[in-house]
Amino acid sequence: MAASSIPPSDDPDVLTVPGDLSRPGTGARTVEQALDRFGRIDSLVNNAGVYVEKPFTDYTDADYDLVTGVNLRGFFDITRAAVPAMLAGDGGHILCVSTSLVDRANACIPAALASLTKGGLTAATRELAIEYAARGIRANAVSLGVIRTPMNPDDPGGALAALHPLGRMGEVEDVVEAIMYLEQAAFVTGEILHVDGGQSAGF
């Protein structure tokens, strides 16, 4: 696991790598340390992300650099390092975390930078799935609605729940179940699995 602020772990099965994934070299260093510890890379989950919600013309150059740095540069750096390690072994699985705002914009949610960067991830997911299909690497993505996390710990008034036809926010367990399905689904690649309470389907 790599993050800008992450404590060390005493668990021999867990490697934590502190670092800013938007900075070139952090992803490669993370993969190198994982190879040193475990000897192989089987799966990569690109779940680092930054979300800044603003009207489009209010975005600053700093906002752009932050969001594209983490969401795109981070993905590029660590995935570029992980693929050769997967090819040197028995293949692997690349999974990206996207947002259903890519597929269904919402007038109440001005998030063009999220759509720009996460839309790039979904496109790259499909491309990598095809580029490496014959070489034993699968690539998939989960496209999320609003998930209850420290960024959205609760929902007073139910405004976030109301964004989803199922009438609730997603839970971390919903995302984990979807990721584990894709991890085990050996005949699935290039899939963008929506975990959004029906948000992408419409209202």
Describe the protein's architecture and organization:
The protein has a 4-stranded parallel beta sheet, sandwiched between helices. 36% of the residues lie in helices and 14% in strands. The mean pLDDT is 94. By secondary structure, it is an alpha/beta fold. The chain is built from 4 helices and 6 strands; from the N terminus they run E-E-H-E-H-E-H-E-H-E.
Features:
alpha/beta, two-stranded parallel ribbon, 4-stranded parallel sheet, 6 strands
Write the layout of secondary structure elements.
Blueprint: E1 2-3, E2 17-18, H1 26-38, E3 43-46, H2 61-88, E4 92-99, H3 112-131, E5 137-144, H4 172-184, E6 192-195
Parallel strand pairs: 1-2, 3-4, 4-5, 5-6
Helix pairs in contact: 1-2, 2-3
Share in β-strands: 5-15%
Distance between the termini: 37 Å
Summed over residues and divided by their number, the pLDDT gives a mean of 94
Strand order of the largest sheet: 3-4-5-6
- Summarize the main sheet: 4 strands, parallel
Structural class: alpha/beta
